[in-house]
Design a protein that fits this description.
Helix content: 25-40%
Number of strands: 22
CATH topology of the largest domain: D-amino Acid Aminotransferase, Chain A, domain 1
Number of helices: 15
Number of domains: 4
Keywords: ATP-binding, Ligase, Manganese, Metal-binding, Nucleotide-binding, Purine biosynthesis
CATH architecture of the largest domain: 2-Layer Sandwich
Protein name: Phosphoribosylamine--glycine ligase
Catalytic activity: 5-phospho-beta-D-ribosylamine + glycine + ATP = N(1)-(5-phospho-beta-D-ribosyl)glycinamide + ADP + phosphate + H(+)
CATH superfamily of the largest domain: ATP-grasp fold, B domain
InterPro entries: ATP-grasp, ATP_grasp_subdomain_1, PreATP-grasp_dom_sf, PRibGlycinamid_synth_ATP-grasp, PRibGlycinamide_synth, PRibGlycinamide_synth_C-dom, PRibGlycinamide_synth_C_sf, PRibGlycinamide_synth_CS
Radius of gyration: 21 Å
Structural class: alpha+beta
Cofactor: Mg(2+); Mn(2+)
Shape: globular
Amino acid sequence: MKILIVGNGGREHALAWKIAQSPRVDTVYVAPGNAGTAIDAINVPIEVTETAKLIKFAKEQAIDITVVGPEVPLVAGLVDAMQDEGLKVFGPSKAAAELEGSKVFCKNLLHMADIPTAGYRTFRDAEDASRYIKDRYSEPNDPVHVVVKADGLAAGKGVIVCSTRTEALEAIDRIAHQREFGEAGKELIIEEKLIGQEASVLAITDGETIMTLPAAQDHKPAYDGDAGPNTGGMGAYCPTPIVDEAMMEKIEADVLVPIVHAMKRARRPFKGVLYAGLMLTSAGPKVLEFNVRFGDPECQPLLMRLKTDLVDVIEATIEGRLGELEPLEWDERPSICVVMASEGYPGDYETGRVITGLDRAAELPDVKVFHAGTAMKDGQVVNAGGRVLGVTAIGNSISGAKLQAYKAVKEIRWQGAWCRKDISDKALEQ
């Protein structure tokens, strides 16, 4: 088989690495890929938004299955366009991808389906949103417990947690007035801040059968102790002890099954990866967001542990026969991914800085360094994005996996490189 993976991040490198292990697969292409996918697959210089070029390549190369990694081409309708040309493709339709593409759509659907989530209000302009905050909180330093969210895609950064009235008004201004996140801010949501621990529960579904994956825990804030601005994710580990068997059953019954049924009722049947971002509150799990693809960085530790042939799962999903498969087989050992980032991320950062030590890190046992924002320049690997590497390790315990991952991190250097030092510490505190 020939497989084409669309994307250029750590998730796509992990997918290429795992899919290439299938005995059914001869060739894996990644469009456009990065310096890491160039080692584990063949890079194709086509951007994720160049739909016509992707279709042309898939036809010319007789690609058997295309796997769409990131949210942007999914929301833009790449799956529909490829299916219209008779190509087999893994991922949700444009209509189904609105579950991630519009937070307003998602919240309204959750409300209609009676799926537990935070209370919220939606706004189309900054003035109405600001008035709502001012009416509820009279003093600038009044404590508030709200989260302000841009409606559209904002690379994980369009969510601002606010503790004072001033912070909430500034968040509204950034999203709806200054348009810091572009068109993503044409609508915004103000919702109550939920208290608890976050967990990511991903499931693969063909619209009928739901195959739930082990729960992971992401670390979205930039700095240790969950301080600083939100990012696309600074690390993750899997499984997380905060989601035990009873909790997983509740999540499946109260969240995953109802959302698949709700999408079907809305005539937007969902096929692909359904990612529930959850807050585990004292009142039970509540949905923070839905994504419509593998999480990044959750994908990396998940695929490190997956023993089942991923191609079999992908093909069965496309063909609507997921229910025929045996349960997924997993390595019992936990895995952790530590994201190494460019200086300045999630704000402005410089690129083109030479990365050293990748070979030494790769020699460590039970370690895989997944590339995200990297490129080749004059024969050397350089940083080409904000989140640069996902250093992933597996171990006999969470602490063992953490030790191995950070051993690999210490081998890798470039000017301004940094990472959180506390990835998976929440599991050790349980």
